[in-house]
């Protein structure tokens, strides 16, 4: 009898050890193309910027739901660094750890159970030299993970692969140089073993591009320029030869702009990666000597093959842009039934105030309607997909001053939106009625190596009356809102105040929830179907807030995000005004709360900053 008990005990312990070994092997598996393809299906991990390749930011987790979300409390916090800029990064969760990037491209790994630092890596950017080359803030929006490596963009133009277990560098690639007025602020994406990354800097005289690097070696695979170069030289590909026909004058001497600093998505079935491009440089098409021309590929959505960078299709929301209406806002890929037909779509809430739905296989225009107040255009031609621009909006051609909506900050900017397939709604952080006064710099002189926007920032003359606005009219005094948008009917379903185009962001879950982080430091949760507020936590960080993620660890669902500016330095030269809710760029006069990674769980007892 005793021998039998010992055998049973032995078998039990052996089985337990085997199960533990299997679990450990599953948890520490290397993330490959198949894992990224299936990312987000269980919701237990957060392996890529938008959770899924289609960037839906929808989690099937529902332990935290409408009945339990009010119990959410802080589990632990981690000081990410000194700060000096917004926290715009989406952290990743894998192998029991949270991985993130903060100001000046410092990368870190934290034990997700305790908040204890695993490792930290500082690329030691030459801040004095690089700071004047940064367009719009000392920020990074995220990292990527692949085959045991953390792929980290460095704001000075480098791309680094770090060992995910130790943080030690494995390879380094030079994407661009700050001496050429480029920086990198976007999160890299992975497609078929390649790292896809773009550059920032369209306010400077640059020629935008994005590129692919081998994720295991760092070797350059291909580069796609978004602006055609000097036509006296061979074009890099046939697409650029065609694009050159939409320019005139000597545009290449001014750079052209078209940088790629945020939105991307990937459809592995279609074998296409989708890329958004930025504004033209200088801003007014008159100064680009391209009056009435489309100026491809500024303010465009491009679909390319990840193996080669070959262009398959493009769509240009704002031909001949003169208003800084970049088309780099995040994409969402989804399958929708429209007019009784199943469509594979790409969707974008653009800076320009219109919500676009395209066929992601062909680029065919499906629909677009304003989700915020718009005065620069009368609408979108539903046959051609081209905007019907108000003649008065051409301030550069008319040599007049005019106030238009949206502003260059956009009706929606980089702040991530999310899509819930159960409700069929997209949740868009929106500036509902932002505007900006545009006036041509009539004595414009090109300045090599400096900002060349070509518009006045002060000293405007009398402004002509703005055109009539289209789009949903916000309640009196409501300038910033979370808008729940139905992409099939192209109509607003509900809205709630708070947020704005820049800062924070959303994630939605199977628990019928939308979590939103607001630039003023609040974490809020709403019912996804009706927009009823169920949770409102002031984190104490009050500025520079990044988007939330959710994941499962040890049977518990967590919500985590980065936030806080910490040490606030003087503003960059000619920097745009701070985003709504952000801390103004002045030297600190007293103690500051350092930026933090905050993690929340049901019945969490941690203490928030004060």
Walk me through this protein's architecture.
The protein is mainly β and 610 residues long. It has a single domain, classed as Quinoprotein alcohol dehydrogenase-like superfamily (Methanol Dehydrogenase, Chain A, 8 Propeller), CATH 2.140.10. The chain is 8% helix and 33% strand. The protein is built from 5 helices and 40 strands. A 5-stranded mixed beta sheet has the order 1-34-35-36-37, with no helix packed on it. A hairpin with a 4-residue loop joins β16 and β17. The longest helix is centred in the first third of the chain and has 26 residues. The radius of gyration is 24 Å and the shape is globular. About 6% of the residues have low confidence.
Overall strand count:
40
Instruction: Look at the structure and name the CATH superfamily.
Output: Quinoprotein alcohol dehydrogenase-like superfamily
Q: Mind telling me the C-alpha Rg? A: 24 Å
The fraction of residues in strands falls at 25-35%
Short description:
The protein is mainly beta.
């Amino acid at each position: 009898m005793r021998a039998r008990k010992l055998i049973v005990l032995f078998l039990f312990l052996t089985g337990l050890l085997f199960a533990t070994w299997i679990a450990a092997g599953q948890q520490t598996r290397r993330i490959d193309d198949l894992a990224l393809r299936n990312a987000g299906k269980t919701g237990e991990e957060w392996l890529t910027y938008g959770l899924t390749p289609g960037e839906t930011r929808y989690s099937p987790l529902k332990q935290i739901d409408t009945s339990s979300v009010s119990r959410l409390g802080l589990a632990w916090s981690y000081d990410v660094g000194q700060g000096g800029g917004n926290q715009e990064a989406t952290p990743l969760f894998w192998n029991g750890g949270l991985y993130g990037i903060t100001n000046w491209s410092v990368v870190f790994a934290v034990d997700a159970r305790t908040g204890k630092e695993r490792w930290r890596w500082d690329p030691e950017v030459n801040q004095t030299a690089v700071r004047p080359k940064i367009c719009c803030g000392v920020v990074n929006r995220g990292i990527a993970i692949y085959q045991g490596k953390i792929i980290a963009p460095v704001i000075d133009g480098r791309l680094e692969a770090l060992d995910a277990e130790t943080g030690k560098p494995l390879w380094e690639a030079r994407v661009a140089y700050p001496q050429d007025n480029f920086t990198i602020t976007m999160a890299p994406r992975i497609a078929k073993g390649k790292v896809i990354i773009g550059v920032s800097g369209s306010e400077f005289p640059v020629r935008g591009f994005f590129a692919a690097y081998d994720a295991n070696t760092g070797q350059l695979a291909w580069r796609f320029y978004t602006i055609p170069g000097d036509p006296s030289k061979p074009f890099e590909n046939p697409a650029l030869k065609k694009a050159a026909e939409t320019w005139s004058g000597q545009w290449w001497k001014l750079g052209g702009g078209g940088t790629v600093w945020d939105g991307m998505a990937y459809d592995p079935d279609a074998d296409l990666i989708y890329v958004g491009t930025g504004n033209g440089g200088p801003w007014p098409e008159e100064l680009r000597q391209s009056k009435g021309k489309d100026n491809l590929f500024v303010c465009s959505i491009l679909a390319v093959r990840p193996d080669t960078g070959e262009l398959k299709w493009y769509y240009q929301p704002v031909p001949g842009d003169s208003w800084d209406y970049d088309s780099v806002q995040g994409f969402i890929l989804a399958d929708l039934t429209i007019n009784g037909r199943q469509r594979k779509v790409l969707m974008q809430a653009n800076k320009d105030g219109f919500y676009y739905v395209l066929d992601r296989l062909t680029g065919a225009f499906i629909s677009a309607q304003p989700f915020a107040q718009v005065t620069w255009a009368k609408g979108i031609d539903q046959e051609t997909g081209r905007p019907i621009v108000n003649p008065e909006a051409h301030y550069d051609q008319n040599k007049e001053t005019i106030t238009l909506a949206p502003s260059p900050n956009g009706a929606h900017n980089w702040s991530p939106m999310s899509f819930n397939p159960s409700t069929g709604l997209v949740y868009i952080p929106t500036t509902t009625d932002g505007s900006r006064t545009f006036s041509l710099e009539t004595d414009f002189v090109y300045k090599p190596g400096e900002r060349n926007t070509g518009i006045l920032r002060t000293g405007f003359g009398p402004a002509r009356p703005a055109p009539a606005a289209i789009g949903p009219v916000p309640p009196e005094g409501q300038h910033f809102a979370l808008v729940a948008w139905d992409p099939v009917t192209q109509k607003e379903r509900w809205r709630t105040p708070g947020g704005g185009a820049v800062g924070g962001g959303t994630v939605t879950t199977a628990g019928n929830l939308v979590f939103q982080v607001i630039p003023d430091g609040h974490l809020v949760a709403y019912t996804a179907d009706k927009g009823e507020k169920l949770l409102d936590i002031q984190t104490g960080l009050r500025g520079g807030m990044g988007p939330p993620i959710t994941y499962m660890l040890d049977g518990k669902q967590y919500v985590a995000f980065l936030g806080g500016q910490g040490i606030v330095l003087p503003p960059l030269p000619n920097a745009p005004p701070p985003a709504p809710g952000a801390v103004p760029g002045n030297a600190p006069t007293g103690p500051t709360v350092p930026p933090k990674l905050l993690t929340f769980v049901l019945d969490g007892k941690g203490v928030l900053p004060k």
